[in-house]
Write a structure and sequence with these properties.
homodimer, 307 residues, alpha+beta, Cyclophilin, 5-stranded antiparallel beta sheet, 15% helix, globular
């Protein structure tokens, strides 16, 4: 497999998004398996957050290119151990799982439902990193129409852009990780994070700091009991799932390396094409796919396989 | 509230989809609360399936207008008690919860993952009710672009149509209920059903019999542990959640009546508009919404409130 990848690489590296004949595939799995090493991007271990909870381990990739101040704040909290002994405070069906760092000075950090919460004034508000200049980004448009904006991909991420404002942003899809905040102008401080466990809530795009996505381990968290209170908050402390420890992958000796597929590669174009034109079980391929369905392949690579 | 609804009804009944000034609303909840009685459609209790499992009660509305043979087959199975002592056999994260009727003659009814299952030959195959003629349906187009087809609503359902083929179909969204089947040409027999618990898998549209949607009680089922085997099948019988009883609402004395919002009404147009242009928490309304986000309001009505 590795030899094949090396042989195929020179042929594929120069390709535009349209997959060459040699990459014609029938399934996304096939396209992923055949992608040469050059079509994968190494994920910086310093951008990977490893969260251990009573439900399991969730591995999260952070996106400093889209929300640098929020990601820096989250990393600082992680390094300070603030998420250790945190809690999953809210699970709302078809929406989000949300967790919070340990309260500081006995003061509850957790957001309350809008009807009971007051305007939060944070000592050092973070900028509203809800979108960023599109300039400087490699934006590969999706071939398919989007209900919300111009859909596409930026260096391994599902994203969208607006030519009028000249901005781009990460899309809210299943597994997206964002920063909980209170009513505007609050922007959150990174001590409360959520991940999406339902239909992609794209209306959150450009309204909240999207800081990453789950690489692995969403399943047991998406299966947590939904909270009985408004917005899926748990009523009792005992219902909250405990977060035992949160670290960056760079802090864990021997932690697996992760890679994401280069969304500007021919392999990813083949994945997109295959997901839009499924065969086998499907008698009538859709001929299209929405942005959230076009998930970017990621993979765990054993340390020994990586130079 | 009821008096208000009666007063408002003559004014609103003749309206086209554009909401009249008197119905200008800021939130979907507001539009739902203010919808007059004439903007709600009673759901036939004979089209409601009440499933009691060890996890809770799930109330499902069937769609005989879209899959008459499959719905008839399901109702026959319900009346024969075949789902009693059935099992939830599969929970695949970001995809489906699937359950099966009791095996007949000790023969396992449950589908197996594609790599292990053989072509099923059913004694009386059902027609492939994956789409139907659009003619005769009241199709209210969504104001917003769709990645897959022309999106819209048909008498209280999220649907799509194709002008070239002259067909329409129900869309696969969170809470959609469909009929599990094996590889084509199998069409399923209604003894295995699933509901969607992830991002709307619209690629299933026109490829499988979509027979309804969950009205209530999806939460504890969406929170069931994901199965460890391929496609989320459970490995051991003990992991399968037991279905204690499945009945039609028409078989249960005093069961609540249910209503769905008329998707051709001005109230629904207001709901759509509000969902696409959220306020309060949202600093930049999306100005659009995809089909699966535009869920049709449904409500439980106490028997005494219904004539």
């Amino acid at each position: 497999m590795k030899r094949l990848a090396i042989l195929a690489a020179p042929l594929l590296m120069a390709q535009a998004p349209a997959p060459p004949a040699s990459l014609t595939v029938t399934t996304a799995d096939d396209a992923i398996a055949r992608a040469p090493a050059s079509h994968w991007i190494a994920i910086n271990p310093d951008d990977i957050m490893v969260m251990d909870t009573a439900a399991g381990r969730m591995v999260i990739q952070l996106a400093p290119d889209f929300a640098p101040a929020h990601v820096a704040a989250i990393k600082a909290l992680v390094k300070a151990g603030r998420f250790n002994d945190g809690r999953i405070v809210r699970v709302q069906d078809n929406y989000v799982v949300q967790w919070a760092a340990r309260p500081v000075d006995g003061k509850e950090v957790v957001s309350q439902p809008p009807d009971v919460r007051e305007q939060r004034v944070r000592p050092t508000p973070l900028p509203a990193e809800y979108e960023r200049p599109a300039k400087g980004l490699t934006f590969t448009p999706s071939p398919y129409t989007d209900s919300y904006a111009e859909a596409g991909f930026v260096s391994g991420w599902q994203a969208a852009r607006d030519r009028k404002t000249g901005t781009a942003w990460l899309a809210h899809c299943y597994g997206t990780v964002g920063v909980g905040r209170d009513m505007p102008p609050d922007t959150g401080d990174g001590a409360e994070l959520y991940t999406v466990i339902g239909h992609g809530p794209r209306h959150l795009d450009r309204n909240i700091a999207n800081v990453g996505r789950v690489l692995a381990g969403i399943e047991p968290h998406a299966a947590l009991p939904r909270g009985s209170e408004a917005l899926g908050f748990y009523k009792d402390e005992a219902q909250r799932t405990k977060i035992t420890q949160v670290r960056l992958a760079s802090q864990i000796a021997g932690f697996s390396r992760w890679q994401m597929m280069d969304t500007a590669s021919a392999s990813f174009a083949a994945v997109v094409q295959a997901r839009a034109n499924r065969t086998g079980f499907f008698i009538r391929p859709a001929g299209a796919a929405d942005l959230c369905t076009l998930r970017v392949p990621v993979r765990e690579v054993a340390q020994s396989d990586v130079k």
